[in-house]
Amino acid sequence: MTGSDVTTKRGRRSSRCAAFAGDNEGATAVEFALIGAPFLALLIALIQTFLVFFAQELLESVVLQSGRLVMTGQVQSQQMTQAQFKQQVCNQVVILFNCSGLMIDMQVASSWSSANTAMPTLTFNSDGTVSNVWQYNPGNAGDPVVLRVMYVWPVMLGPLGFNLSNISNGNRLIMASAAFQNEPGS
User: Fold this and answer.
1) pLDDT at residue 16 in the model
2) What is the distance between the alpha carbons of residues 162 and 147, in angstroms, rounded to a whole number?
3) Average pLDDT over residues 65-88
4) pLDDT reported for residue 20
5) How far is CA 121 from CA 63, 68, 134, 167, 177, in A?
6) Contacts of 75 (CB under 8 A, 6+ apart)
């Protein structure tokens, strides 16, 4: 191989590289492949985050309204059972929640300092349903009451490792609570 042959081969290679670099066909597809995946991952993460926080806010609103029924003595005067009260709560959240998944815990506290407003630890059956037993005590006039409404919100593991789960089964426990003192006339 002579020196002119090597120079010719180098010239062909450099002209091929220049042609490849100057070719715009398919550039959009390559750019979308580079930018599209992170963009879609971000979009999925935003939608999932929005849904979780929207559900949380809806649950907060429902707990305030439901707590008012207890605080004003309507639950006690109508002698609502736990199932009836759960149905009252469920009637307000039909958009985002499955009523069978709502968990309601209502306790009378002996004092404000002993009121339990903490996130509970859930236990699950072998079939994956929550096995906790919840209290239902709307109390009497003047009693401090804590109402907690909980729901296991399904979340999917998002792209790039985005994860909103906070319980062992990979879902998110959302909870809203209200602490109030029953009105004296209730």
Assistant:
1) 67
2) 31
3) 93
4) 58
5) 20, 26, 12, 8, 15
6) 69, 85, 138
What is the distance between the alpha carbons of residues 66 and 58, in angstroms, rounded to a whole number? Answer: 12
Structure tokens at 67: 């707590």
Dihedral angle at the C-alpha atoms of 111, 140, 66, 164, nearest 10 degrees? 30
pLDDT at 3: 54
Task: Report d(CA 56, CA 172) in Å as an integer.
Answer: 11
Which range has the worst mean pLDDT, 22-31, 33-42, 49-58, 165-174? Answer: 22-31
* Residue 92 CB neighbour total at 10 angstroms: 15
Q: How many CB atoms lie within 10 A of CB 164?
A: 19
Packing angle between helix 82-90 and helix 27-71, nearest 10 degrees?
140
- Rounded Cα–Cα distance for residues 119 and 132 (Å): 13
User: How is residue 89 written in tokens?
Assistant: 């709560």
For 63-131, list the strands marked E by DSSP. 103-108
Q: Is residue 62 predicted with pLDDT exceeding 90?
A: yes
Residue with tokens 């029924």: 69
pTM: 0.75
Instruction: Name the nearest CA neighbour of 173 among 56, 50, 44.
Output: 56
Label the pairing between strands 144-153 and 172-181: antiparallel
